[in-house]
């Protein structure tokens, strides 16, 4: 990722150093699909062609909702960046998770129909009347006709997509002429703009393990770096890439980035086990105990505000 696309270097806070099988939405839904399956104490979705790397239990759903607040802070109180105008009529949220973005966008555009799609039925029952949800595998053929949507959005489809060009092609087909698509994702490619991140670092080890394991798992963590080329190859126009720096803890001086960093620290401290347990087990052959021992040092470094690292979003 070229440095010219990154924001300016973030200034750290002065004196801060503390530790603190496939189907569509038309398929009958069985009770086993709704329950999922348990691995190492976490619940995973069983709907879809391929294994998804993240859990679908209540702990994970809480994490997703917290990340929704984190991205709102990081993107300067924006839910999306695409210039979709004031009157979109059909909006599609791919991999909607808890449905929190779908619900917010439905409330933002009350005349629009907002549809959230996910392989786990984990959405809120109290959604806005113009928000609804479908159980589906977005890597399979979309059940929607061509030229249906004004805006198609996807956020943090990490550990889930094995064929991005195919997904992008389906999106191109389902968008109305002049419609917009937007992908957002943290890459997991650890960065630091100063010398505060040691050469021998648990966080570096984490980033290296995630890079290796996601390539073995079939969902490379650096795929977002290739999005632009795939969009352009499919025929999208006005393709734009914006890269934000997401601090790993509240080390920045800037209040907005400090809040985003505080939320990301909570995300990492309490969500890391769920993020990497299945991934490291399936791809690296680690036991659950080995994963937990590895994460002890990572969590210690995450708390250290003297380390000024960040993820590109």
Helix coverage percent of residues? 25-40%
Query: What structural class do the secondary elements suggest?
Result: alpha/beta
Q: Oligomerization state of this entry?
A: single chain
- The outline comes out as globular
Sheet with most strands: strand arrangement: 5-4-3-6-7
The percent range for strand residues is: 15-25%
Q: Sheet bearing the most strands, described?
A: 5 strands, parallel
InterPro entries: SAM-dependent_MTases_sf (IPR029063)
Pfam family, one: Methyltransf_23
Protein name: S-adenosyl-L-methionine-dependent methyltransferase
Region (Disordered): 1-24
Write a structural description.
- The protein has 313 residues and is an alpha/beta fold.
- The protein has a domain of 207 residues.
- It contains eight helices and ten strands.
- The strands form three sheets. A five-stranded parallel β-sheet has the order 5-4-3-6-7. It has a three-stranded antiparallel β-sheet with strand order 8-10-9. It has a two-stranded antiparallel sheet with strand order 1-2.
- Strand 1 and strand 2 form a beta hairpin.
- Helix 4 crosses helix 6 and helix 5 crosses helix 8.
- The radius of gyration is 19 Å and the shape is globular.
């Amino acid at each position: 990722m070229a440095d010219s696309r990154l924001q300016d270097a973030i200034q750290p806070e002065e004196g801060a150093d503390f530790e603190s099988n496939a189907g569509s939405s038309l398929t009958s839904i069985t009770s086993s699909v709704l329950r999922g399956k348990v691995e190492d104490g976490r619940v995973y979705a069983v709907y879809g062609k391929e294994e998804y790397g993240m859990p679908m239990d209540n702990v994970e759903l809480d994490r997703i909702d917290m990340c929704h607040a984190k991205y709102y802070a990081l993107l300067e109180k924006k839910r999306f960046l695409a210039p979709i105008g004031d009157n979109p009529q059909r909006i599609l949220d791919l991999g909607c998770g808890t449905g929190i973005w779908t619900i917010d966008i439905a409330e933002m555009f009350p005349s629009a129909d907002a549809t959230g799609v996910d392989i786990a039925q984990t959405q809120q029952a109290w959604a806005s009347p113009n928000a609804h949800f479908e159980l589906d595998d977005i890597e399979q053929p979309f059940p929607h006709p061509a030229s249906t949507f004004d805006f198609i959005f996807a956020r943090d489809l990490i550990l889930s997509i094995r064929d991005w060009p195919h997904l992008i092609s389906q999106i191109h087909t389902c968008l109305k002429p002049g419609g917009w698509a937007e992908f957002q994702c943290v890459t997991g490619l650890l960065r630091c703009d100063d010398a505060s991140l040691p050469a021998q670092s648990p966080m570096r080890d984490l980033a290296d393990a995630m890079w290796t394991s996601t390539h073995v798992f079939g969902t490379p963590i650096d795929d977002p770096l290739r999005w632009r080329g795939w969009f352009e190859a499919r025929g999208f126009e006005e393709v734009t890439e914006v890269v934000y720096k997401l601090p790993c803890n509240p080390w920045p001086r800037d209040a907005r980035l400090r809040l985003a960093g505080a939320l990301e620290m909570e995300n990492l401290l309490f969500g890391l086990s769920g993020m990497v347990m299945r991934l490291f087990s399936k791809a690296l052959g680690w036991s659950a105990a080995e994963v937990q021992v590895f994460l002890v040092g990572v969590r210690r470094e995450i708390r250290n505000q003297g380390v000024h690292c960040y993820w590109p979003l």
